[in-house]
Amino acid sequence: MEHLINNRVKNIEISGIRKFFNMVAHVEDMISLTIGQPDFQTPEHVKEAGKQAIDLNFTTYTHNAGLIELRQAAADFYKKKYHIEYSAEHETIITVGASEAIDITFRTILDEGCEVILPGPVYPGYEPIIKLCGATPIYADIRNTDFRMTAELIESLITEKTRCIVLPYPSNPTGVSLTEPELQEIANLLIDKDIFVLADEIYSELVYEQQHVSIAQFLKEKTIVINGLSKSHSMTGWRIGMLFAPEYLTMHILKVHQYNVTCATSISQMAALEALTNGVDDALPMKEEYAIRRDYVFKRLQSMGLEVIKPEGAFYFFIKIPAINITSFDFCMDLVNEAKLAVVPGSAFSEFGEGYFRLSYAYSMDTLKEGLDRLEGYLLSIK
């Protein structure tokens, strides 16, 4: 009966990140620097709010778009942090993680045959959904612009079929973010074009030397902003995302969301309400620690002679594989077999990631030190 399965589903793959993680998970004495999973615990006061929700029997459906109190807190969060005003009632939707927000956005705005421009390398969660919608992903090769998506690159790829530009920043896998002038230039390019922007800002609270700026400041009427609490509040398993867009968009996105999941989990919503009110700055101590780890890892990688750009946000390094005739997958498998160190092959982030590997520093300093010692030993052994 497999021949009856939707061909679009058969033609997409499990995320290369998860595929590699699962492939090496059984190896004993493995140091894994693969997953973008904060090693901090969910803040205690947020966990208590979730427990109280259960004790108070807050276990029923909520409004499809989420509790109005939570939507208001989310809108207030964006106003306070990023200076953009959204209506809690009409322009804010609480989703099951940022992943669902991406899914329902694409399913709302994409038609058969249209095109979506996205940077390459990029997080692998966009392309499969684009293809499931019958649309075509068009990659902008950002390897020669220090992994920065530019207005010039975007302009060179726009056609009459272009429906959406994906701007994920800070970036997974590169850690690169975009500055206000860069975003203003992209907004100026798109201001008179019938093209949407999907701004995936899930790492917005983990930007180090500069303040995060949303392109919605300049292009609000065309932008769908996606965020969530997984990275900022170490709430990956709670699955709470936030989607902001003008009402003419959210009124349709909400329909897809409703038939997809009905609503986000009520218990998680109550925990999220605590996170976005009393815990609005919970990310700050985590960010300080990540910055220390980033600087340590950067110095170690430089001392090994590796080609790498210092991340401006998130918690990843995207590292050029030394000049040896080997694919990123084979390099990473050899690293597993010879050094018992797991990182993610760059090929997991599109063809434009080939020749690189991603290392996550969302791990303790002890784990990072041991992992980098193993990497250094391996590199010395293959010289």
TrEMBL record:
- Originating organism: Mesobacillus stamsii
The highest taxon in the source lineage is: Bacteria
Per UniProt, the keywords (alphabetical) are: Aminotransferase, Pyridoxal phosphate, Transferase
Keyword Transferase listed: yes
- The segment(s) forming the Aminotransferase class I/classII large domain are 29-375
Write down the Pfam families for this protein, in alphabetical order: Aminotran_1_2
The similarity annotation says: Belongs to the class-I pyridoxal-phosphate-dependent aminotransferase family.
Q: What is this protein called in UniProt?
A: Aminotransferase
InterPro entries per UniProt = Aminotransferase_I/II_large, AspAT/PAT-like, NHTrfase_class1_PyrdxlP-BS, PyrdxlP-dep_Trfase, PyrdxlP-dep_Trfase_major, PyrdxlP-dep_Trfase_small
Q: Which residues cross the membrane?
A: none
Q: Which cofactor does it need?
A: pyridoxal 5'-phosphate
Keyword set includes Cytoplasm: no
Q: Which GO terms describe its molecular function?
A: transaminase activity
Enzyme Commission number(s) of this protein:
2.6.1.-
